[in-house]
Amino acid sequence: MNSQTEIDQAQNQTGNTQPTGKWRALNETWWTALQLGLTSFGGPVAHLGYFHQTYVRRKQWLDEKSYADLVALAQFLPGPASSQVGIGVGIMRAGLWGGLLAWLGFTLPSVLMLMLFAYVMQTFDPGSSGWIQGLKIVAVAIVAQAVLGMAGKLASGPVRAAIALIAMASVLLWQSPISQVAVIALAGAAGIWLFKRQVNEENASVIRMPMSRRAGLSCLGLFVLLLIGLPLLNGMTHLQWVGIVDSFYRAGSLVFGGGHVVLPLLENEVLLNGWMSKEDFITGYGATQAVPGPLFTFAAYLGVLISGVPGGIIATLAIFLPGFLLIAGTMPFWNSLRSNPKLQGVLTGMNAAVVGILLAALYHPIWTSSIHSPLEFVIGAGLFGMLMFWKCPPWLVVLIGALAGQLFL
């Protein structure tokens, strides 16, 4: 009797109305996530708004405080924040299988669209079509908006701005496969001392999860094992598919601060490995803005260009896997982790560094590969204005950019 009362109280606290059966819960989770994957345009911040409207207000699967805590957890961890929130809701609803279906439903539509686009792209010369050049200019506008938005939140103040500028200079002047990893790690270490803070836990709600700490530790252990073991395996085998898994898993493990940060990390992996040209890379990033769903599905486009449809599937699974393992592994420990000021200092330093890394990517390869004439600058400025000042949806900016490129370039 007491056990049942505790369960009822936990459900009332989280606002989680449990379904009558496991299969119904899984079915609901899948179809709800698929609908979001087909309609969620606008990037990670917009996705969180769609999730709130669907999961909190319409479905009432969790309450406001639990949702806010889950968003905070996803933003604390590396990985695609909006996808991790969706995975977290799926886990709360139907366990680990629910988290997997929530991810698959939200991700699958954009993966299929971008794989199709990559297949079509293989029949074109990227340098010969005006609309391709238009997509590259769209990427300039998109990333410039992301840099400004992130700088205001994550690199404000003299200390964080200094970290961002040092990070930018470091990755531009030190072209190495490990430069970005080293910069992020050093910024996190500096953050322990530079950003000591006290965490106010008053009025903090408690996230209750249907996962044990042992299961969480297993997920975290697998995350670390793959992060260490894949580079070793790649060095011993030199197989292309192992290299793809290694590169995309590492990129997915180091994304702090927002989905756009995956751009310089993937650029560092893909271009230095000689898998494609800068033009192909930037064209795909521009096209990614036109589809719904998470920005991480850019990996599907890249994987197809590297090794066909199997490469697209492998790259997509590899880049999302660390974020899945981290959100699943950390949720049972979140209430303890958020009270640690040293960990928050590490996160603050890392977030400032990724702003600088994204700023470096805006210059190279995006700007240097896309803006070569006054006309291209004018088009880019107009597209940036549409995003920044007139709040046009990204898919509309993509279409106008491609059309402008076809007509004028």
How are the elements arranged and paired?
Elements lengths: L1 H13 L7 H18 L4 H15 L5 H13 L4 H41 L8 H25 L3 H16 L5 H16 L18 H25 L2 H14 L8 H11 L5 H11 L9 H33 L3 H4 L3 H30 L3 H15 L5 H15 L1
Helix pairs in contact: 2-5, 3-5, 4-5, 5-12, 5-13, 6-12, 6-15, 6-16, 6-17, 7-8, 7-15, 8-15, 9-10, 9-13, 10-11, 10-13, 16-17
Short description:
This protein is an all-alpha fold and 409 residues long.
Kindly describe this structure.
The chain is globular, with a radius of gyration of 21 Å. The chain has 409 residues and is mainly alpha-helical. It is built from 17 helices and no strands. The longest helix is centred in the N-terminal third of the chain and has 41 residues, at 81-121. It has helices at residues 2-14, 22-39, 44-58, 64-76, 81-121, 130-154, 158-173, 179-194, 213-237, 240-253, 262-272, 278-288, 298-330, 334-337, 341-370, 374-388, 394-408. The N and C termini lie far apart (73 Å). Helix content is 77%, strand content 0%. The protein has one domain (2-124, 133-408).
